[in-house]
Write a structure and sequence with these properties.
about 325 residues; mainly alpha; two-stranded antiparallel sheet; 2 strands; Phosphate transport system permease protein
Length: about 325
């Protein structure tokens, strides 16, 4: 059996090393290109909407941001009412969806029997796959009549409370900010719940069993063990649902009422940025079209600010945990 010369063996090693280095360089450039493509798409969307709305933003930007007027006949446009409707409906959705999502995730990970966890988790995932237009049709034909029936009761009870009473006073038409917020809550609930359930399952079993062995209740285990361990991921899931609510279009368009007004009552109709664009963009020309594109840029900015706040909160939590 002939032996391989040492010089040939060293040469083969050098060739392989050069080849591996070249492949690694190609792979790094490929990954870098993918990342830059994402940034380019993000920057392109922002710049294109900013340029499309320049006629309104650069000409009279302060009036556009501070006015609630929307009159295509006189070319008088203000973004305050759509921004107000977007933020209010998203806040209502978040207030309603987060506690329910937390309860469902807690039930599935800590309380539910094994035979029930699979069907409930599958049902939640199916809710996330339903198209938004189906939620909108359900909201318009089923939930709006239901809300129109209970809104007089809300006005007679909650509407008489001090401070918050004005929020529940208004005509019982069913369409409005509260209805849109509830429909949005149903839409974002499966996203938040799925994230919470997955991160709750990552908590080491020995940590929870140790707490139970010391006499802790289920609530104490969740509050003192599970939540601190998964706090960052839970907040990330909540902001994921918020981002979904901010950009929702079709479901909100069906049930919001599409009225350019700012009101103290959650029972009154309103509008949102995405619903305004969906309703009017097909027939818009000139300044009207520029105003709608400017609304799209504002929605981009609002979503970016929300995600930035989420990142800052997660970074602050990481520093506190490190300390």
């Amino acid at each position: 059996m002939s032996s391989i010369p040492a010089t040939d063996f060293a040469s083969d090693i050098d060739k392989r090393s050069h080849r591996d280095a070249r492949h690694d360089a190609w792979f790094r450039w490929l990954l870098r290109t993918c990342a830059l493509l994402v940034l380019a798409a993000l920057l392109g969307a922002a710049v294109s909407t900013l340029w499309g709305g320049r006629e309104v933003l650069f000409k009279d930007g302060f009036h556009f941001l501070s006015s609630d007027a929307w009159n295509p006949v006189s070319d008088d446009y203000g973004a305050l009412a759509p921004i107000f409707g977007t933020l209010v409906t998203s806040l209502i959705a978040l207030v309603l969806a987060v506690p329910v999502s937390f309860g469902i995730a807690l039930f599935l990970t800590e309380i539910a029997p094994a035979w029930l966890r699979g069907p409930v988790a599958t049902a939640i995932e199916l809710l996330a796959s339903i198209p938004s237009i189906i939620y909108g049709m359900w909201g318009l034909f089923v939930f709006v009549p239901f809300m129109a029936g209970i809104e007089p009761t809300l006005s007679d009870t909650l509407g008489r409370l001090p401070l918050v009473g004005k929020l529940f006073q208004g005509p019982p038409i069913g369409l409005g900010l509260l209805t849109a917020g509830i429909v949005l809550a149903v839409m974002i609930l499966p996203f938040i719940c799925s994230v919470m359930r997955e991160v709750f399952q990552t908590v080491p079993t020995r940590l929870k069993e140790s707490s139970y062995a010391l006499g802790s209740t289920t609530w104490e285990v969740v509050w003192d063990i599970v939540l601190p361990y998964t706090r960052s991921a839970v907040i990330g899931g909540i902001f994921l649902g918020l981002g979904r609510a901010l950009g929702e279009t079709m479901a909100v368009t069906f049930v919001l009422g599409n009225a350019y007004s700012i009101t103290n009552s959650l029972l009154m109709p309103g509008t949102s940025i995405s619903s305004s664009i969906a309703n009017e963009f097909n027939e818009a020309v000139g300044t009207h079209r520029s105003a709608l594109i400017a609304l799209g840029f504002l929605l981009f900015v609002v979503t970016f600010v929300v995600l930035l706040i989420a990142r800052l909160m997660l970074r602050q939590l990481a520093r506190r945990e490190g300390a």
